[in-house]
Design a protein that fits this description.
two-stranded antiparallel sheet; Endonuclease, Chain A
């Protein structure tokens, strides 16, 4: 239920249904600002940190010590240390890998060397480390500014503190495409609740190397009220949380308690509900190929006449190439190949120019879906089985045609080199397909003079090779 009482008529008539089971309710009155690519995202986050008045709380999955924030702000640790020097309450939850998950990426795992580094720097921010069960990871990437204050602002998405920042345009190949979203208003308080729930119950709290910057601190209090209205967007903060990670079912503001010890799958549930509800268009960007549960629903949408565009890395993930060589994995690729038999389906990558004048794929790391120009989800959740059924994830799901259409136009302006503001969503997806197919034909003919970056891929062979 919405925080303001019974749903208004406009909410009841939403074409994409709300998820009723989850930690957080849908909340109206939010201001939503998608941030496309790491340059604009980390520039805006840097500005927010520098203007923070009370606190900066962050959840981190992957981090490189030499990662540089834009505009000369220095490393991630430099940004934190300066914030502490200004008197802010700075806290970070870092993911600590298990042996089964240690190969996923570069983590600041809280080793003795990491503690020595923090000591040598004189770092005074507070940090705690958190393991996930088995081969899973805590995959949430979030920044919360001024928790519980009038200036409370949240950022969440999929961008890691690892690769060099990328500015809009992707004029060069070999770069990374990714998305964050800024949320101010009542739903930012749910990002606040998520941080408190995790901070108070991190797995490593009572271990020798589980805490930095404080010893006997009491637990953080949960937010008791949501932030004031700041805009017109309906937003629901949704999570995937593995069962057993956390136990405290303290309710979010204006919401009933949720039994988090049993786990949560509101992101997974929302993806399936949204695909079922689509009537005209579905636009996805994802680092991973969808699992069969998702591709099955996408095929049903295609049968209804919905036009589907799926943007993935042009060079597949290494594990996909390995799976293509294993007959027992054929069932994973069959649903994707089935999608490719529909004329209204487009599998695509994006490729920029290199310094040699040819083309090279841009790595797609984003995790978003847009439906019918009225609904979007943006966050950390990939469409592979780990994210959907094991990792800790967090997405902001938005019901606001103005926000969604503007994001669609921004992305397609970058990928197609054309303004689609005057087109409806279906016409825009059809244009995407045409340009992507034309560009693929040009690349095959060694013609690198394209319109935009989009380049269609063959669903029947995707994953067979990691080279163009």
């Amino acid at each position: 239920m919405d925080q303001d009482g019974p749903p208004a008529a406009a909410e009841i008539e939403q074409p994409v249904p709300f998820i009723e089971r989850g930690s957080y309710p849908r909340r109206s009155g939010n201001l939503v600002r998608p941030l496309v690519d790491s340059g604009p995202a980390f520039r805006r986050i840097g500005e927010a940190v520098e203007s923070a008045q009370h606190s900066v709380w962050i959840t981190v999955t992957f981090m490189a010590l030499d990662f540089q924030m834009p505009d000369g702000r220095g490393t991630f640790l430099d940004v934190l240390d300066r914030a502490v020097d200004r008197g802010l309450d700075v806290r970070v939850i870092f993911w600590r890998p298990n042996p089964q998950s240690s190969g996923y990426g570069q983590a600041f795992a809280g080793t003795s060397a990491d503690f020595d580094l923090l000591a040598a720097r004189g770092s005074r921010f507070r940090a705690r480390w958190d393991r996930a069960p088995l081969a899973y990871c805590h995959h949430q990437k979030s920044w919360l500014i001024d928790a519980g204050q009038a200036s409370e602002t949240a950022f969440l998405g999929g961008i890691n503190l690892t690769f060099a920042v990328v500015e809009p345009g992707h004029t060069g190949g070999g770069q990374r495409h990714d998305i964050y979203v800024e949320v101010t208003g009542p739903s930012a308080s749910d990002v606040h609740h998520n941080f408190v729930q995790r901070w108070n119950e991190v797995s490593e709290l009572n271990t020798a190397w589980g805490v930095w910057g404080h010893e006997d601190e009491a637990t953080l209090p949960f937010p008791e009220r949501s932030s004031d209205r700041r805009g017109n967007s309906i937003v629901q903060i949704q999570r995937n949380i593995h069962a057993g990670c956390y136990r405290d079912a303290h309710a979010a503001p204006d919401s009933p308690p949720y039994p988090i010890a049993d786990g949560e799958r509101s992101i997974t549930d929302q993806y399936l509900v949204a695909i079922k509800a689509a009537r005209r268009s579905i636009y996805l960007e994802n680092q991973a190929l969808p699992v069969p549960e998702i591709t099955g629903e996408l095929e049903q949408a295609l049968k209804r006449g919905v036009h589907v565009v799926l943007l993935v890395p042009g060079v597949p993930e290494e594990y996909l190439s390995e799976w293509r060589r294993r007959p027992e994995r054929k069932a994973f690729f069959d649903p994707l190949e089935a999608l490719g038999r529909y004329e209204n389906f487009t599998l695509t990558g994006i490729a920029g120019r290199t310094r040699f004048g040819d083309r090279e794929y841009v790595y797609v790391h984003a995790k978003i879906m847009l439906v019918d120009d009225v609904w979007a989800t943006i966050g950390s959740c990939n469409l592979h089985s780990n994210s959907l059924f094991g990792h800790s994830e967090m997405n902001a799901t938005v019901w606001d045609p103005d926000v969604v259409q503007a994001l669609r136009c921004q992305l397609l302006r970058e990928h197609l080199g054309q303004d689609t503001q005057q087109l409806d969503d279906l016409s825009a997806m059809q244009l995407y397909q045409r340009i992507a197919r034309e560009n693929a034909a040009r690349w095959e003919a060694s013609d690198f003079e394209w319109q935009g970056l989009a380049c269609s891929l063959n669903p029947a062979t995707y994953g067979e090779s990691r080279k163009r």
